[in-house]
Design brief:
about 5% helix, 22-stranded antiparallel β-barrel, about 800 residues, ion transport, mainly beta, signal, tonb box, five-stranded mixed sheet
Length: about 800
């Protein structure tokens, strides 16, 4: 491990210390001065950052380019208040805003493109919002708002808004082209061009990327393969503008899941035979599934497709000055998504091969008197020490969303009033087909067959597997959810004096949700006439004994939301560069999809999550120094926990939480711009409140006062950069993630240790060409972002299932601006 890290660092240094050219044009600084920045997210209109009574972080296209994030989640790590888990790969990651716990995804924030949602609900089952969005050179800037007015300008977003704003053309034709490669087989090209078709009137912008790579974790296949294209056309007239746009995303990404580790005191170390930094169960040797179905036909799946969304988006935006200080703005968008989702989910931790075969079912075994393992690939008899049962989870989702946001704005001498109506119709239909396979517990797993050698191959129950499949299609789910959102909102800005401004906002949500679930029965293939190997019937194996079959009984459900969200705030400018503000906000999050599914027969068991937040802040902006310090306090009521376990069931617990914290964000230029430092950090103390009840097995629990699971009390990012010459720049980035508890009980065997991840890079600007090398996790830290919410600990052992960050890697790129 250490040798590989040293090599990556040496390669970075060699590339740049050998480059002795000097130019007269300095590189752009990593950070654009905040004092004059204008923000639009969470505000009634464009507003100077220092005058906005919100906690908002901004990143320009140049800043994003210099950070060169490996994923959208990696970029969002730079936002205080957002605890981000990046270990899933390029997509499928999790974000927790201000200590609000959830099962994952982007449950309490809304991810937007140009002020409208990427998809209305960013936390549907297996449909994290970042599955449908990619960061490329078509992004003009990112605005990330925490808490505050999020609930006024969007649905289900009390934690905040993440708004990626697209580039548009101007009178000057310009563009960017980028080529990138890496230590893990990456080949990526990005393009973006924009300009005027008719000067001062008609503008265009078009761009996108295509990328293929083998993945930092060694899958044995193309882990990521695909790209997107985005384009817009904008016509400007005397009293406004009209814009239309289109996006096409077709991308395949491997989703990385927990791997086995060993707990060694307060640290986690590698499990024998499993590389913690580069290993994965998502491996080519077990990547194919092709099994007969109890209802006829075969179910075939290829793990190489991973998370594969096909996304088509078409939208329009129109703004018009009605006169007499009135204006109208209308945004509309239609999104269609077809996604194939395939992942290898461990069904618990590795087990001793002998224990798994011989122990009774009550102890997690199969109760076999004699057993024999063999490799599916060549039939060779083997005697592994550990075996791993893996869930081969296949999900298909068809989703669509039509949204329209109409707002009127009236400006007067002392402020403005904005009134709007938001309408969104969306639907998601999903089909699950899950099987379990048996494999060696290594980072290059091989499928195993397990038989009773004292029996004849023609005897009933001779084999526990079918070509390595332990449980064939043991879970099938067919369900649908629809949302019809009808929200009216009002925002009022008033300037009491030149320095003191007030803000008040309200949103009335009359939202309707409905859906259905299809019942299932069990069957087997014993009388199907099919054979396991051309000779023996399926009576010889138990792998098909509990196959799921869809029935014809549908359970329909309906759920209505009738809620008011509101916020009050004041901002006071002490002088040109100093301001303080205070804000109270009340919002909610509707029940999530799994909560509906679990309670279809009695929806009175679930409620929307109510949130209250109070924040105060101090902001100072200058040409060379920025600082924001924002203490906050939040309470949540009726928070649901809906982890989906490896057997397809999910828990149904509800809790209240409180959190007090402080967000800090800063930037400085020192020594005549030679040294630049960016910093963000969060200190918080999220706690459960009144969290008592019964587990599914009838036992009681009392978690009142415990620390909220998966939430660090302290995390930060610091990134110093040195402008060695006007053209030559080097940086180091350090992410620290504090200790967390994997479970609500805060037990010692569920501790996720703190870790520090270090990245580094250099760049050289040769005229309009930029050369760069970026290294991530250069010290090969084993950093755990999450445990395994589907199976927590292996009782009686020190084996822990967890999902570490990626190992050390480096990327090299050439960018041309023209």
């Amino acid at each position: 491990m250490k040798k590989r890290s040293i090599f990556l660092m040496a390669a970075t240094a060699t590339l740049y210390f050998n480059n002795a050219y000097a130019q007269e044009t300095p590189q752009d600084s990593i950070k654009t001065s905040s004092i004059d920045q204008i923000v639009i997210t969470g505000n009634s209109g464009p507003k100077k950052k220092i005058e906005s009574s919100t906690a908002i972080s901004t990143f320009t296209a140049k800043e994003i380019q210099k950070q060169n994030p490996i994923s959208a989640a990696a970029l969002l790590q730079r936002v205080p208040g957002f605890a981000v888990e990046t270990s899933g790969g390029e997509v499928g990651n999790n974000l927790f805003a201000r200590g609000i716990p959830s099962a994952g995804a982007y449950e309490f924030v809304q991810v937007q493109e140009d002020g409208l949602p990427v998809f209305e609900d960013g936390a549907l089952q297996f449909a994290n919002a970042d599955n449908f969005f990619r960061v490329d050179n078509t992004v003009s800037r990112l605005e990330a708002l925490r808490g505050g007015s999020g609930s006024i300008y969007a649905n289900n977003s009390p934690g905040g808004l993440i708004n990626f704003i697209s580039k548009e053309g101007s009178n000057d034709f310009k563009g960017t082209a980028k080529l990138e490669t890496s230590t893990y087989g990456l080949m990526r090209t990005d393009m973006n061009v924009g300009g005027a078709l008719v000067k001062d009137k008609l503008f265009f912008n078009v761009g996108g990327f295509y990328r293929t790579d083998n993945g930092i974790r060694k899958t044995g296949f193309r882990a990521n393969n695909g790209g997107q294209i985005r384009m817009n056309l904008k016509y400007v007239f005397d009293k406004g503008y009209a814009k239309v746009y289109y996006k096409k995303l077709d991308d395949r990404n491997t989703f990385y899941l927990p791997i086995p580790l060993l707990q060694d005191g307060d640290k986690l170390k590698e499990f024998p035979g499993f590389d913690a930094n580069y290993g994965t169960y998502s491996y080519r040797g077990i990547s194919q599934l092709n099994i007969p179905q109890a209802g006829g036909g075969f179910f075939k799946r290829d793990l190489e497709n991973g998370i594969h969304p096909k996304v088509d988006v078409v939208g329009a935006e129109f703004k018009y000055d009605l006169g007499n200080n009135f204006s109208v703005l209308n945004k509309t968008r239609y999104t269609n998504i077809n996604m194939e989702y395939t992942g290898m989910f461990p069904a618990g931790a590795p087990k001793l091969a002998s224990d798994y075969a011989t122990k009774p079912a009550s102890e997690g075994g199969l109760g076999m008197s004699n057993y024999q393992y063999s490799l599916v690939s060549n039939g060779a008899i083997v005697n592994p020490q550990y075996i791993q049962k893996l869930g081969f989870w296949a999900i298909d989702k068809q989703m669509n969303n039509f949204v329209n946001d109409l707002q009127f704005n009236y400006k007067f001498d002392k402020g403005s009033v904005t009134a709007g109506f938001y309408k969104s119709n969306w639907k998601s239909h999903q089909y699950w087909n899950w099987s379990n396979v048996l494999a060696t517990a290594s980072d290059k797993p091989e499928l195993l067959n397990l038989v009773n050698p004292s029996m004849s191959p023609s005897d009933t129950g001779y084999s526990q597997t079918y070509n390595g499949v332990k449980d064939m299609s043991f879970l099938i789910r067919d369900s649908q959810i629809q949302g019809s959102l009808n929200d009216a909102y009002l925002n009022f800005d008033y300037n009491v004096t030149e320095d003191l401004s007030l803000n008040a906002g309200m949103r009335y949500s009359r939202d309707y949700y409905k859906g259905y679930g299809v019942n299932t029965t069990t069957a087997n293939l014993n009388n199907s006439g099919l054979t396991t190997d051309g000779t023996h019937s399926f009576a010889t194996t138990t792998a098909d004994d509990n196959m799921a079959v869809l029935g014809n009984k549908y359970t329909y459900w309906n759920y209505d939301i009738n809620k008011v969200s509101y916020t009050l705030a004041a901002n006071y400018k002490l002088n040109k560069g100093n301001a303080v503000y205070a804000r109270f906000s009340h919002g909610f999050r509707s029940p999530n999809e799994e909560a509906y599914y679990n309670n279809m027969s009695d929806l009175s068991a679930i409620k929307a999550v109510d949130t209250n937040q109070l924040e105060v802040g101090y902001k100072y902006y200058s040409r060379t120094f920025d600082i924001g310090i924002i203490p906050f306090y939040s309470t949540l009521k009726n928070l649901s926990f809906t982890d989906v376990f490896s057997d397809g069931t999910s828990e149904n617990k509800f809790a209240n939480t409180t959190n007090f914290g402080v967000e800090i964000e800063g930037y400085t230029r020192l020594f005549n711009n030679i040294l630049e430092v960016t910093f963000n950090g969060t200190i918080q103390n999220p706690k459960y409140k009144d969290f008592v009840g019964k587990n599914a097995d009838g036992t009681t629990f009392d978690y009142d006062g415990n620390t909220v699971r998966r939430m660090p009390k302290f995390y930060f990012n610091i990134s110093p950069a040195v402008n060695i010459t006007k053209e030559w720049r080097a940086y180091v980035s350090m992410n620290y993630y504090g200790k967390r508890f994997q479970n609500e009980g805060n037990t010692d065997d569920n501790v996720l240790p703190s870790f520090t991840e270090v990245g580094a890079g250099m760049s050289y600007q040769l005229g309009k060409i930029r050369f760069a090398v970026d290294g991530t996790n250069i010290f090969n830290t084993i950093g755990i972002t999450e445990g395994d919410p589907r199976s927590q600990t292996a009782a009686g052992t020190n084996i822990r299932m967890a999902r570490p960050i990626m190992g050390a890697a480096a990327r090299a790129s050439i960018t041309l601006d023209f």
